[in-house]
Amino acid sequence: ETVSQEAVRPDKLLIITVATDITEGYQRFLRTARNFNYTVRTLGLGEQWKGGDVAHTVGGGQKVRWLKEELEKYHDQEDLVVMFVDSYDVIFAGSPIELLWKFHQFEHKVIFSAEGFCWPDWGLADRYPPVSNGKRFLNSGGFIGFAPQLYEIVQLWKYKDDDDDQLFYTKIYLEETLREKFDITLDHKSKIFQNLNGAIDEVVLKFERNKVRARNVAFDTFPVVIHGNGPTKLQLNYLGNYVPNTWTHEDGCGVCDDDLLDLSEVQEDDLPRVLLGVYIEQPTPFLPEFLERLVLLDYPRNRLSLYIHNSEVYHEKHIQAFWEKHKEDFSSLKIVGPEEALSQGEARDMGMDLCRQDETCDYYYRVEPMVVLTNPDTLYILIQENKKVIAPMVSRSGKLWSNFWGALSPEGYYARSEDYVDIVQGKRVASNTVSSPPYIGIFLHISNRYRVWPLDLHFRNTNRTRRHNDLWQIFENPVDWEREIHSENYQNTQIFEEDLSEQDQRLAGGYENVPTVDIHMTQIGFQEEWLKFLQEYIAPVTEKLFPGYYTKAKALLNFIVRYRPDEQPSLRPHHDSSTFTINIALNRKGIDYEGGGCRFLRYNCRVESPRKGWSFIHPGRLTHYHEGLPTTRGTRYIMVSFVDP
Ligand SMILES: O=C(O)CCC(=O)C(=O)O
Ligand SMILES: [Fe+2]
What is the ipTM of this complex? Predict the structure, then answer.
């Protein structure tokens, strides 16, 4: 069966839809329609919806009434093809020409979309004509037909606005005389309409050159209209993040630069006002650094307010110090402490209310203290994205963890979408619509467009019994770890007294030729962290020092030594059980102690006073027989590692 060229006339196609509000779903619908040059007529804009709560009960009759009024205009245009579709949860995946061609191939005057559920009256199921292969039941979220026939169908509407539209069309279809009179059929195999409810597993993405289609694998069809009916909004969002050209392999994000808010010409005093909400609900490493980073945000001070909720007594001193230093740096600064005993929910409500109830507050930005905000332009970037709700993607360096899920399990909990890994790794960069809480009409977006933060989280591994949690953060938060541990002021020899006094001094799995008064990293649970440090910071140095030798950066013995005149002042000559040894000065000769140092007997060479925090490296065996020289006053601390034993 061929369709004549003359029949396929896009100028004789009209799309009619309904939208009372310009929701993001409606905007997405229009974007896909524009992409294919559809002519769209929207009914009901700005009017009040009286069609009932269709998400939870029946309803939708108002759509039929409006359509009835609209079709008055076209009822005598015999060659006009009209398609009616919902808009909030619909996208176009194919062109008008394809649509018309498929329509004419059906050789019926009117085609309704089909689905697997008989809604709203399951009792009518038996009255449907049987279908050998395909969806059996009518869905009124999409239909297409010649204007005169559609006009005649909606003439039969004599009901209330909150009566059910689908039931109305269903009854007409099930009435054999009417079905034949109007020449109605159903699109059983999703050639034109894909209803997602009950069919999620049938629909996959198919990447083509510069465009993406949804393919129904059950019927091997490429539907033109995708409808996220029922509880399939997430799946529609997922498809809509690609179809028709939202993101393609060739061109990347096809819509990312549409509808941006240009702030470049806006005067500082006219920028939106932002309230930052910070919620400290657990002991958090590097909290002072986190707070200081808020001040570094490049945004006019008089447009920025800060609300901090802190439920940890431990952090009060940090917040106090921050407040004293920065109370002038924000247009307002409100702090609610642990004495208020707010629940997390109450604290968050309070923060949001501060913005919601303040007419001058334009944006509310919530940030968790375990997120590393490294880009000072963060606020500009997010505001320019021009979304109602948006989050930057937060991921941990080198890991597949992120704040983005991409999918939900049937129980409504965490699941990874098929595209999760590519998105987290930044291989697919876009502002994805990840969620649309039903019926609010607002989408939640997440963007990995700008690497807003290298994104490390550091709340795992936080142990309230440790005084120096920060030191353990080398895996979780290498960014802050490096900044803090490498700072000139970093001082942590107290570890000897604080963390270790109770520890078992016996060692497992290593051998010291000459025992010292020492604390081993295994004793304080720091062995893995130390090995990571060797890998990241020492291995690259040894490649320069010992060309041609490649260290495994493994070490069984990693320990802090304490020398005191009355305890252990020195160490007799020995070899180390290492290929090379690193020896880090932890305090200062001449200030903290006198004497000390390491002497290499064969060369009579002494390394006496490296700067605090500096290390020397020497081969461990044969050539470098060495001793620890007597400490004559005070206490000398060194950190020693026998690398590659
Ligand atoms: O005191 C020193 O610097 C030498 C320490 C040493 O050789 C060792 O602990 O094996
Ligand atoms: Fe040694």
Answer: 0.94
Summarised one tens digit per residue, pLDDT across range 12-37 is: 999 999 999 998 899 999 999 999 99
Q: Which two tokens stand for residue 498?
A: 């604080």
Amino acid identity of residue 22, one-letter, is I
Residue 518 CA: which ligand 1 atom is closest?
9
The two tokens of residue 459 are 């709340």
pTM here is 0.71
pLDDT in tens, 142-179: 999 999 999 999 999 999 999 999 999 999 999 999 99
Can you tell me the distance from the alpha carbon of 636 to that of 496, in angstroms, rounded to the nearest whole number? 12
Q: Rounded to an integer, what distance in angstroms lies between the CA atom of residue 322 and that of residue 280?
A: 14
Q: Whose CA is nearest to atom 1 of ligand 1?
A: 628
Residue 378, C-beta contacts closer than 8 angstroms, at least 6 positions apart: 297, 392, 452, 453
> Phi, psi at residue 429, to the nearest 5°?
-110, 125
HEC string of 506-569? CCCCCCCCCCCCEEECCCCCCHHHHHHHHHHHHHHHHHHHCCCCCCCCCEEEEEEEEECCCCCC
What is the DSSP secondary-structure string of 96-134? HHHHHHHHHHHT-SEEEEEESS--S-GGGGGGSPP-SSS
**Cα separation, 573 vs 624, whole angstroms:** 10
Ligand 1 pocket test target in 581, 599, 614 with most atoms within 8 Å of CB: 581
Cβ contacts of 170-174, under 8 Å, gap ≥ 24? 170/121, 170/124, 170/137, 170/138, 170/140, 171/124, 173/112, 173/138, 174/124, 174/127, 174/128
Ligand 1: residue whose CA is nearest its atom 6: 628
The pLDDT value recorded for residue 311 is 93
Ligand nearest to the CA of 619: 2
Q: Is the CB of 583 under 6 A from ligand 1?
A: yes
Q: How far is the CA of 626 from the centre of ligand 1 (A)?
A: 8
Q: Name the closest-CA residue to atom 9, ligand 1.
A: 640
Taking residue 207's Cβ as centre, other Cβ atoms within 10 Å add up to 13
Q: Helix-strand-coil percent breakdown of the chain, rounded to 5?
A: 30, 25, 45
Q: Where are the beta strands (DSSP E) in 93-229?
A: 110-115, 137-146, 184-187, 193-195, 203-208, 211-216, 225-227
Buried b (16+ CB within 10 A) or exposed e, 44-78: beeeebebbebeeebbbbbbbbbbbebbeebbebe
Peptide bond into 573 cis (omega under 30): no
Beta partners for residue 275, in sequence order: 305, 364
Closest by CA position to 188, among listed 219, 228, 142, 225: 219
